[in-house]
Amino acid sequence: MRVKIKLPDTPSIYQTNMTLGVADMNYGDHLGNDKVLTLAHECRLRFMQTLNMDELKFYGGKLIMVDAMVQYLGQGHRGDQITLDLWLTKCTAFGFDFYYQMNKFTDSGPIEMARIKTAQLFFDYDKEKPVKAPEKFNQVYNREL
After folding, report:
1. Which single residue of 79, 97, 127, 138 has CA 20 to 30 Å from 90?
2. Cα–Cα distance, 136 to 134 (Å, whole number)
3. Closest Cα to residue 84, out of 39, 51, 49?
4. Which residue range(s) make up the domain with 126?
5. DSSP classification of residue 13
6. What SS3 class is residue 78?
7. Residue 7 domain-assigned?
8. What is the CATH number of the domain that holds 129?
9. Number of folded domains in the chain?
10. Residue 3 lies in a domain
11. What are the pLDDT tens digits along the chain (145 aa)?
């Protein structure tokens, strides 16, 4: 059975544009499957940068990615202009999910290339174990304490 990722019904919280380069291509001369996660990572970091944060300073906590899923829907090629939309959802006591939608621009409109989901946990790297989400994160994302 193929992976099917349902995107949230709410508007995305962040959007960024990128241009696919030669380093994003594989031997088939199209976007490499591994690069899809790299582009999602770039989108995630750009979003955090708008908050003056990063993965090791996210609302006072540190993040670790614990799983990832990709649903491939179309090909990308060098020079394609793409956009990634980002959602932050499914907040729990210890983490949340990021969802991403990757589209490329064409003369006839956007074409969906991929949907991505990554699960993030707040993590204590010294103790090497998950920790509860910081109170500030809970306040911002309206999760009951």
Report:
1. 127
2. 5
3. 39
4. 14-140
5. S
6. coil
7. no
8. 3.10.129.10
9. 1
10. no
11. 889 999 999 999 999 999 999 999 999 999 999 999 999 999 999 999 999 999 999 999 999 999 999 999 999 999 999 999 999 999 999 999 999 999 999 999 999 999 999 999 999 999 999 999 999 999 999 765 4
